Input
Amino acid sequence: MSFVKKLKAHEFNLFKGNKPLLGRLDIELTERCNNNCIHCCINKSEYDSDALTKEMSTDFVKEILTEAERIGCLSVRFTGGEPLLRNDFQDLYLFARRLGMKVILFTNARLITEKLAEMFVKYPLGHAIEVSVYGMRTESYDSVVRQDGAYTEFHEGVSLLLKHKVPFIVKGPKFKFLKEEQDEFITWAESIPSMDKKPGYSMNFDLRHRRDDPEKNAIIKKLRLTPEETVSILTNNPLYLNSMGEFCSNFIGPPGDKLFKCGAGKSICIDSYGNAQLCLPLRCPDNVVSLHKVSLKIALQESFKGMQEIKAKNPEYLRRCAICFLNGLCEQCPAKSWVEHGTLDTPVEYLCDVAHAQARFLGLISDDENAWEVNDWKVRVKRFVAIHGPAI
Amino acid sequence: MDVKLNVVYVPSEGVVARVIEDELIIVPLIAGIGDADDELYTMNETGKAIWLSLDGIKTLKDIAVDLSDKFNASPSIIEQDVIGLIEELTSRKMVVSLS
Output
């Protein structure tokens, strides 16, 4: 008879329903970064002394981790900026691991050292490290991150991970001007032992999350793929239609006027300064809670509970997004609205266009239709799922 | 390795035990405990009761006596369970003997 059962985290019964209070925690250890990527939605200079002064102290982060453990948190994501810039990263990492949490690390790998790699070998993270890749050679990489020598350091960091067999996966932004490197990137990614699927990518880049740089926003908008280019990339995947069939059978349909239907608030994100957020991009001052003033538990049980009931008031949102069946396919959400417009309920035209382009390709709407004006969407979705959906 | 009832066993430093919503979850801390990095371990009720008794003071015999009283079960059956669990946990490097 075996007394011990081996499971993956998602196989446990205890994460079904509303318990425990917190399954996963995101902590943005710093907004500072040693890269200065052309498309980045958050970074500050690694030498930004004002940001550095305001960042959470080591003890404060440990208090948050301790409380998170107490309320059932099994996994913490360390992100940034570049989290390895923190001098106390190793301390915080081991602290989280010794609390019995698994750690997800997002990094550009430039600061991976022999010592860090050895630590990851001795105390495995529990998840593959996610390494962002900005180009396949010095010219392209350094031009995206705008730091001389960055590619060399990235390459050294990744080499150390490979040498010590630390599991990692790679992902990257899709830039039109680096199209010719895509195949090379995918081929290289396939050679990484711990990559069990194709690399993830971003292409509909977020604007600045803190709404702090209109000039940078203008650059980001130019870097975004057009709706047609987005569809072209998505449909390049031979599994796209089948995956959309499965998706449509489960997730498509009008959201109504309640804004937070995305599950935001069920996990929690902490920014670099100790503010708890419903999700990483949503930094609207009215929707964050300072953990210098309330505990993590109170933030989850009280502060965020009320926010999840917020309803849209913008007539344009109610006329369009609230009744649009492309919800689920469309990335419209309060965070995206905040980032683009400074409100929670303004339609983001770019995202609307991307969703409509996809819907047209899938045959769910015709070229001259707006999805929010379609009344027989259930019939259309049923027809689509009958052709492309999962076999019953 | 033979497990003996007169020995004290404790959780190894290579794991962290957590009780979340009454479920005991063992999280590997160091390399070499699990087969894959993303695995966690849980135990049935008997295993949980025994694990929670590993206080670094009681021998396995003491634990078996306590649990036999607590669950009103035959001491010999409890002893078999205790030995069976500790054998399994030892093979997984989740417990070590103090002797």
Notes: Residues 238-259+311-392 of chain A form one domain.
